[in-house]
Design goal:
The protein is an all-beta fold. Helix content is 2%, strand content 41%. It contains three helices and 71 strands.
Length: 854
């Protein structure tokens, strides 16, 4: 290792690098939308992972405008009508402001999560920022922490103008939060049970518990009970319990439970005997679980007593609040909670700007009529999502209340009446908006799980008409269309924006396909070309073709250097197929591309698999043979084992290795390295595995010796591991870092290994040389070389949060010196770097896909 004083330094590029977008639009979650008030065609849009987009042609094309943006999670946008070039973006890192229509941003002082928490946050911020329409220096903000702020100097300083104060948890219940704890897709809380000693199992007729929901809408929720023999019985779907925040006493009869399918399949003889339901006398455990629309969408249950039912009597066997002995797994947190409910939206009256409304999570709508000096709770439902003042009628206000729908006031908020006739049942309404031209024209959006609904009314919300079909743009967004005739249903809309220059033009930010209407919502067209939000996991080249694997979206190919893309798979929504594609292996065999991709389906009952094609994706097959049949959880990077590594033997394309993180557990073999000797048609786990199976991208075959394998691991027993005998034995060969997310081996056998810094070994890991001296909490993930010029290297240094602390570097002298080539890259933390010698382009994939001429 070189002395620190002689380590290479980084210099800025003489001419800033100019990256070009080469990805596509759609396929992700867009959360915010706002129109420019005076410039026709200009729309701003925010996404959950890629920042802010701008369109200057009514949404037909988009570009990212992230210069200076503090965080790539953007959940609310607002434009100053007095100074229309001024734009605010509420990000997860704080409130950002632009004075030049979004071209440059700065983070406003003390607005970060650990300070004032004037932030935009998923599931909490809907219209969190509002600018006074007559004085651009006056700005209001609704905080996810349960506070309303006001600034009189354009966001430089802030004052709390309303907060209800801390709320205490109900002492009679234990708070159990499902979701929004980690990246896992499910989880549960469970308790050991002891059947009452003075009762007989045959006398028991069911099971009961006390429960309070939070008005959320998980897709699925179950109670499961387990017997001493290991049999598990699952209840019917209980997700509707969460819709109410009132105390419920829930009783489930024996007939409400069915034997778990997995147990029945493995124990067919016992299954026949257990078809009648659980033997309650042997039940020794109860599990509560819930699955929401996203891993990060929380549902909160408050659990009290648990009991066995004996006819009309009950015998309490556990009190959650008293002993708090619940144990958890997956995406669950017990106890805790926030001091106050989130404030979702703020609205200012265009006719009387001293009138301000805040939509809160626990007090409904609160209103100030004196510019925030005093406030009053209005007689509305207690969980509000948004509010909208009429610009033409000072007395008319509309508001939305999640499961309680849309309400209306015609006396400036003094009284309210429900105005939801015609809205879909089971819909959670997130936003309502009234036309600036007519108080009778009003629009509402909502969702039930992934299903979305847009509704319009032209009679002041007396009646509503649904219009939720989008005409897809299959060129700008090549992801699969789950519908007929090029149309697809709206999915989880998040914001309605109305063009102030043409109130019949509406824009809706949604999951997957943002869309625009030119006829006041009667018809919708997808508008997302260039709004790149794809999470790229791999990039490969074969002749004139570029391939990309993507989280959520599948695998794609471009025949024209990224100008347009075609999706190879999935062809439509198929639960066992659709999900995250992680890694690609492309080999041209006999003039045709063989494509191998690794996949984790969204539905966690389907374990990881491989998708392979022998004809460049025209046809394909799903491969599971030899891969784990269960979901892996022990010692995984993201809570669940994912097949993120793939390596082909350069000397024999039929030999392919796959890496899957996860230790053995419950008698199962776990993950690690799997080998295929028939081009990915079948797989077998290597009998010997490295000391750690927790990994990200690092798996390689040495081009100079097919028996020499490398495996990069993270955490305990991490680092770089080498096998000289095809995986029969392993040895740790990298002492400098336990967290190695990626590595590569060049054509001459040189190893490049990324941890906090980049290291190189020319003797198979016996000795190492440090090539960078990065500072801060960053990790080298992207690593690439030019196969024709061994001295040319590229790396990306990234962080794992949503912030903008990342960069791409190039060395032309084998790491002796480095140049920062981040330039105008809109997402500065790409996880994948690939060089295409055919075009002399470096491609960067992370969130968004970009390329740079070299």
């Amino acid at each position: 290792m070189l002395p620190v004083a002689t380590l290479p330094t980084i210099r800025a590029a003489e001419v800033p690098a100019k990256w070009e977008p080469c990805g596509w639009g759609g396929g992700g979650f867009y959360y915010a939308a706002a129109y420019h008030p005076t410039q026709a065609g200009v729309i701003y849009m925010g996404g959950d992972v890629a920042g802010v987009y701008k369109s200057e042609d009514h949404g037909r094309t988009w570009r990212l405008i992230n210069n200076g943006l503090a965080n790539y999670g953007v959940f609310s946008l607002a434009v100053d009508r007095v100074n229309p070039q001024t734009v605010y973006a509420a990000t997860e890192g704080g409130l950002c402001k632009s004075l030049d229509a979004g071209e440059h941003w700065k983070l406003l002082p003390k607005t970060g999560h650990k300070e004032l928490r004037i932030t935009g946050e998923k599931g909490k911020s809907i219209r969190a920022i509002a600018v006074d329409p007559t004085d651009g220096k006056i700005v209001y903000a609704a905080s996810p922490a349960g506070k309303a702020y006001k600034s009189t100097d354009g966001g430089e300083t802030w004052k709390v103008v309303y907060e209800k104060g801390a709320s205490s948890e109900d002492a009679a219940f234990l708070r159990v939060q499902f979701g929004k704890v980690n990246g896992d897709f499910f989880g549960g809380a469970w308790l050991p049970l002891v059947f009452p000693a003075d009762k007989k199992g045959a006398e028991c007729t069911g099971f009961g518990f006390t429960f309070k929901g939070d008005q959320s809408h998980p897709d699925k929720a179950f109670v499961s009970v387990q017997t001493a023999e290991g049999a598990t019985f699952r209840s019917k779907n209980l997700h509707e319990l969460y819709a109410s925040d009132q105390l419920q006493e829930v009783v489930l009869k024996t007939g409400d439970f069915v034997l778990d399918e997995a147990y029945a399949k493995k124990n067919p003889d016992q299954a026949k005997a257990l078809a009648g339901g659980p033997d309650w006398g042997t039940v020794n455990r109860v599990d509560f679980s819930a699955v929401g629309a996203l891993p990060t969408a929380a549902s909160v249950a408050r659990l009290g007593r648990v009991w066995f039912v004996f006819g009309t009597a009950k015998a309490t066997v556990r009190d959650f609040a008293a002993d708090k002995s619940a144990r958890t797994y997956g995406n669950v947190r017990v106890g805790g909670g926030e001091t106050a409910g989130a404030y979702h939206s703020v609205a200012i009256s265009p006719k009387a700007p001293a009138n301000v409304l805040v939509a809160t999570d626990d007090s409904g709508l609160v209103m100030s009529r004196d510019g925030g000096r005093s406030w009053k709770e209005l007689p509305t439902p207690k969980r509000a999502s948004s509010a909208s003042f009429s610009a033409t009628d000072a007395n008319t206000i509309y508001a939305s209340f999640y499961a309680d729908g849309v309400w209306k006031s015609t006396d400036d908020g003094q009284t309210w009446a429900k105005a939801s006739e015609g809205l879909g049942s089971g819909l959670s309404i997130t936003e309502v908006a009234v036309s600036p031209a007519n108080a009778l024209d009003v629009y509402a959006i909502g969702a039930a799980g992934w299903n979305g609904g847009f509704y319009y009314s032209h009679d002041g919300a007396k009646s509503w008409t649904k219009s939720s079909t989008i005409l897809c743009d299959t060129v700008g967004d090549p992801t699969y269309v789950d519908g007929k005739e090029g149309k697809t249903p709206l999915s989880t809309p998040t914001n309605i924006a109305i063009n102030p220059l043409n109130p019949k033009e509406l824009f809706c930010s949604n999951n997957w396909r943002p869309c625009l209407s030119e006829d006041a919502g009667q018809t919708w067209q997808e508008r997302c070309a260039g709004a790149d939000i794809s999470c790229i996991t791999d990039i490969r080249f074969s002749g004139p073709r570029a391939y990309a694997s993507v989280m959520d979206e599948g695998t794609f190919v471009s025949e024209n250097d990224g100008k347009s893309w075609h999706q190879l798979w999935p062809p439509k929504y198929l639960p066992e197929f659709i999900g995250h594609n992680w890694r690609l292996a492309i080999d041209n065999l006999n003039g045709v591309d063989r494509v191998i991709a690794t996949c984790s389906p969204w539905d966690v009952k389907y374990p990881p698999r491989v998708i392979r094609s022998d004809d460049a994706g025209k046809t394909y097959q799903i491969v599971k043979a030899g891969l784990p049949e269960t979901i892996l959880r022990a010692n995984t990077m993201w809570g669940v084992g994912h097949p993120r590594a793939l390596a082909v033997d350069p000397k024999n394309p039929q030999i392919v290795y796959l890496g899957l993180d996860g230790d053995p557990e419950n008698g199962k073999g776990g993950g690690g390295i799997f080998k295929s000797q028939d081009g990915g048609k079948t797989w077998a786990q290597l009998p010997s595995q490295p000391a750690s199976r927790r990994m990200f991208y690092g798996l390689a075959v040495d081009p100079t010796d097919s028996q020499r394998l490398y495996w990069a691991a993270c955490g305990a027993n991490g680092g770089l591991h080498r096998s000289e005998d095809g995986g029969a034995t392993w040895k740790s060969v990298f002492p400098h870092d336990q967290w190695v997310f990626n590595m590569m081996v060049t054509g001459d056998g040189t190893i490049l290994c990324g941890g906090k810094n980049l290291w190189r070994s020319t003797d198979h890991g016996a000795t190492w040389k440090q090539l960078t001296k990065f500072t801060g909490d960053r990790t080298v993930v992207g690593i690439e070389t030019d196969p024709r010029r061994s001295a040319v290297l590229w790396v990306s240094a990234v962080t794992w949060d949503g912030g903008n602390n990342g960069a791409v570097y190039q060395s032309s002298d084998a790491g002796a010196t480095w140049q920062d080539i981040t330039g105008n890259l809109p997402y500065v933390k790409p996880l994948v770097l690939r060089f295409n010698p055919a075009t002399n382009e470096l491609w960067a994939g992370g969130v968004t896909l970009q390329k740079l001429k070299q």
